[in-house]
Amino acid sequence: MKISSASSPSVSIAPQAGGAAAAPAAAPVAAPAGNDALESAVLQPAQKALGALPDFDAARVAELRDALAKGELPFDAGRLAGLIQRFHGSKA
Questions:
Q1: Tens of pLDDT along 49-90?
Q2: Which residues, 6+ apart, have CB-to-CB distance to 31 below 8 Å?
Q3: CA 91 to CA 24: how far, in whole Å?
Q4: Which residue in 21, 31, 33, 87 has the most C-beta neighbors within 10 A?
Q5: Is the dihedral of CA 47, 51, 53, 57 positive or negative?
Q6: 18: left (phi over 0), alpha (psi -120 to 50) or beta
Q7: Running DSSP on this structure, what letter comes out for residue 22?
């Protein structure tokens, strides 16, 4: 197969008026109206399950992070690697 530099791109990108600074940072893309009901039906069980989960204790996470950084919390990298391998399964 020969690739020549004379071919034109199949997609053209035109600059917008006003440049990038004028564009909103996170403009939502409008979905077709028929997808709203489907998304709602799909997302509602997930939202309900997330609502049932307990909130994490940010203070406890910070406490454990500090203890780990100070060396007060034992850490066994080999054991962690074994647990990860067991969880994800061995490919060998």
A1: 888 888 888 899 999 999 999 999 888 999 999 999 999 886
A2: 39
A3: 46
A4: 31
A5: positive
A6: left
A7: G
